[in-house]
Amino acid sequence: MSLKKNQIFETTIENLSSDGSGVAHVEGQAVFVPGAAPGDVIRCRIVKALKSYAFGRIDAILAPGPGRVAPDCAVCTPCGGCGLRHLSYATECEAKTSFVRDAFARLGGFDVSSFEFSPVLALTDHTAHYRNKVQLPVGLDADGHVVTGFYAGRTHRIVPCPDCKLQPEWMNALARQACALLEANGIAPYDEETGKGRVRHLYMRQGWHSGQRLLCFVVNGNGLPNEAEICRTLQQEFQLTTVLINRNTARTNVILGRDTRTVLGPGVIEDTLAGVPIQMGVHEFYQVNTPAAELLYAKAKEFARLQPDDFLLDLYCGMGTIGLSMKPHCRRLVGVEVVPQAVEGAKTVAAHLGLPPEEADFYCMDAGEAATRLASEGAHPDVIVVDPPRKGCDNATLTAIVQMAPRTLVMVSCNPSTAARDAKFLCEQGYTLEKVQPVDLFPRTRHVECVLQMTRKSN
Q1: I want to staple 208 with a disulfide (CB 3.0 to 4.6 A). Which of 29, 90, 290, 420 is the partner?
Q2: Does the annotation mark 450 as catalytic?
Q3: What is the extent of the structural domain holding 304?
């Protein structure tokens, strides 16, 4: 018997799906319920029924599961950024371990007992105010006041969030003060429907170890009215290292435009990640949770098992931090990244570290194109590290990796599903999956990273 829309029933949540929804089974069908916790006994209403599964919502929690806690954020449900804030952190870690295990078992077809699988690595004392970067859309609330916040799920409706639990307190305070200054100066937020209005986003970044702070106004135009006074006021109140203006007049959802100018300070901030010195503006990709990223990098280095004479290839290298953090343990490093600013940053860091191009060089290319070219030129790196986007590695990259035949491949992935898919392909081409380590870079959210170690079977 199929479930019907608006049907109501009582059920117990068994576990969580990879998107954080609770999973129950009713009349032989899976029902996915957002906001549910394992062990919850709920009254559930079906909101969408399909042939073999359905989606429901909680009408009432009849008995909370053992891992349910009261969320400490008033807007976490409409905001949606903290999809697991209704769970204890121990329960969240158990769920994220299961997310990764299930991806490799169900999507990759692996027998999880055939490789070393460990529970999620997590910093249990670092689950709040951990983000070193935030991009806040600017809009108007119901009363017409300028606010910042986050988009409600599947919309561009801003949920005001003056006290986000994931970003440092100074970012929250600066956002509130910036809104007050914009309103006092009659500066309207950008309106997507009309293309009118000036301020689109507030962009903030922090050097976690250095303490340096960056603010950027993303504007629909060339600048702000009364720009110098507004920027100087915020710089002095919040000890900002630099203040920037990014020009974005495009009628798109892309946050940053191409042109950025410096209003105050050097235009960049500095920090270190896993011992690697970094300079950041607004365009460079950088891990948003520095302490957890250093935990992840340490695990990647452990899995690489580098030897002093090794050639290391770092694909999707970003600013080069993973490869450069491993460079003291190998002879030669080559990094590949498609973002020009990131490549220039990586070259600058390598030069700062005293590494000549023959020891550490970086190329601005698509990872698949670069890997294919290197393979055709007969390159044979001993170890390859890949850190692809959520869509995973493309076929050209995976095929070229197999042709180059490294003895060890380390994959850092922000999407366990595509990691499992790519690992399956590589295992079919002569590699063995040795280890999988989940790492929690984004506490209180649904996201989890993982690090894989794979070795060539001939070894």
Answers
A1: 290
A2: no
A3: 105-123+289-456
